[in-house]
């Protein structure tokens, strides 16, 4: 591509990135997504009870419980939640981080309940005590889906939970309702009766409604728990911790100060050491910063936006220093070519050409390291790896395209 066209391309991309970072209209908002350590929220430490689990199955049970809790949190709508496992001696724990969620008790109820649903029929000799109801074998494992609905009037008014059974469950439900016409069929949740509707007729199709004195929030949470499934192990809440927004804001402020200082030091150094070439590199560095922040906010609309944690901010600040690494390699090769008698235009072309191998090898090794950190690291390390990888990729673009275009136009 010819320099003027590349310059226009760089200008348009930079302008779009500026609009993302500094929105000029109400309808164009791309806020940075902050992790728990930056925006505050709730952290739960859950202790799993493995006494009744076969030792060979404990790791599988732990992972299964983690996946179920993740589904519950996602269904609840907490964005950028983090669920991870940890081991301390023989203890197996699940750590749940819920950014922005201030109600720790609501979070504990959501992730910690077992939600064991089952249907029970009255014994052969009817009793007033509903706790003597006999299990029918129809449980939450036979569910296909559950959702919140609203009744019409009377006792059926208000929030309800509509459930649909899978094929096997629908067949069981039809047989149970056929055998219990005119009798109550009790619905138990975690061994507590929540409803005991009287069966009017055989129900074919596998659909039912759980009624009770539910609030809308209670009905929503019940549907979430039923959809996500029952936990394979019992869980005790070891710790509930609320991280206030003040601590998060303080961390953000310190990170911003560190970032500004780092950027300023690098820019001043480049100008002092390389003079005019350093100023060109600084212009490319400013564009680099704008582009990286825009990618953090939007994910280029192809991947989810980056969730910034303190470790992620550290990765970004580190990448600022690395962003000028390619420029330094290019400038040093240019200086060598000029010392050997080459003209400035030819020295620039040769400098870029001969520095490219080193730039490519350096950045590929950094990307490989970031990939290893992301694949094998804990979530905090993954945040560092993502921001570092984005910084490396954008720095290659700004060094090879932006800096080169500026120099071509200025030398011409």
How would you characterize this protein structure?
The protein has 412 residues and is an alpha+beta fold. The protein folds into 3 domains: 3-33 and 245-411, Up-down Bundle (Multidrug efflux transporter AcrB transmembrane fold); 36-113, Alpha-Beta Plaits (2-Layer Sandwich), CATH 3.30.70; 117-228, Gyrase A, domain 2, CATH 3.30.1360.200. The chain is built from 12 helices and 13 strands. It has helices at residues 3-21, 36-39, 58-76, 104-112, 167-179, 216-228, 245-274, 276-298, 310-323, 325-339, 344-376, 379-411; strands at 33-34, 41-49, 82-88, 91-99, 117-121, 134-139, 143-151, 158-165, 185-189, 192-195, 207-210, 234-243, 307-308. The strands form 4 sheets. The chain has a 4-stranded antiparallel sheet. A 4-stranded antiparallel sheet has the order 6-5-9-10, with helices on one face. Strands 7-8-11 form a 3-stranded antiparallel sheet. The longest helix is centred in the C-terminal third of the chain and has 33 residues, at 344-376. The chain is elongated, with a radius of gyration of 30 Å.
The low-confidence parts are none
At the fourth level of CATH, the homologous superfamily of the largest domain is Multidrug efflux transporter AcrB transmembrane domain
Number of beta-strand segments: 13
Q: Major β-sheet, in short? A: 4 strands, antiparallel
Quote the beta fraction.
15-25%
What count of helical segments does DSSP give? 12
CATH class of the largest domain: Mainly Alpha
- Average pLDDT figure: 79
Number of domains: 3
Radius of gyration: 30 Å
């Amino acid at each position: 591509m010819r320099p003027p066209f590349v310059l226009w391309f760089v200008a348009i991309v930079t302008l779009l990135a500026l609009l993302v970072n500094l929105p000029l209209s109400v309808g164009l908002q791309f806020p940075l997504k902050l992790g728990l350590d930056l925006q505050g929220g709730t952290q739960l430490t859950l202790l799993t009870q493995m006494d009744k689990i076969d030792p060979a199955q404990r790791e599988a049970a732990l992972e299964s419980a983690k996946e179920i809790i993740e589904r519950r949190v996602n269904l609840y709508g907490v964005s950028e939640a983090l669920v991870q496992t940890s081991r301390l001696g023989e203890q197996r724990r699940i750590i749940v981080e819920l950014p922005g969620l201030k109600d720790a008790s609501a979070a504990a109820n959501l992730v910690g309940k077992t939600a064991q649903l089952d249907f029970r029929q009255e014994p052969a000799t009817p009793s007033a005590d509903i706790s003597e109801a006999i299990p029918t074998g129809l449980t939450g494992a036979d569910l296909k889906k559950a959702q919140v609905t609203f009744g019409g009037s009377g006792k059926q008014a208000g929030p309800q939970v509509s459930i649909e059974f899978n094929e096997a469950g629908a067949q069981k439900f039809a047989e149970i309702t056929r055998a219990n016409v005119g009798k109550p069929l009790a619905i138990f949740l975690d061994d507590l009766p929540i409803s005991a509707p009287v069966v009017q007729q055989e129900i074919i199709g596998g659909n039912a409604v759980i009624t009770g004195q539910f609030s809308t929030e209670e009905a929503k949470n019940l549907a979430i728990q039923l959809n996500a499934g029952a936990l394979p192990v019992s869980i005790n809440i070891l710790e509930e911790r609320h991280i206030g927004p003040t601590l998060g804001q303080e961390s953000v402020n310190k990170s911003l100060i560190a970032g500004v200082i780092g950027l300023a030091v690098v820019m001043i150094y480049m100008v002092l050491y390389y003079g005019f070439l350093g100023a060109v590199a600084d212009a490319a560095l400013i564009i680099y910063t704008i582009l990286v922040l825009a990618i953090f906010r939007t994910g280029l609309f192809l991947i989810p936006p980056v969730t910034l944690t303190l470790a992620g901010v550290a990765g970004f600040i580190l990448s600022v220093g690395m962003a000028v690494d390619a420029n330094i390699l290019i400038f040093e090769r240019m200086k060598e070519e000029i010392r050997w008698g080459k003209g400035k235009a030819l020295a620039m072309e040769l400098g870029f050409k001969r520095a490219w191998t080193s730039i490519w090898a350096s950045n590929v090794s950094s990307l490989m390291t970031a990939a290893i950190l992301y694949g094998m690291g804990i979530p905090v390390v993954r945040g560092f790896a993502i921001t570092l990888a984005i910084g490396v990729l954008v720095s290659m673009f700004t060094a090879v395209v932006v800096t080169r275009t500026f120099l071509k136009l200025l030398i011409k």
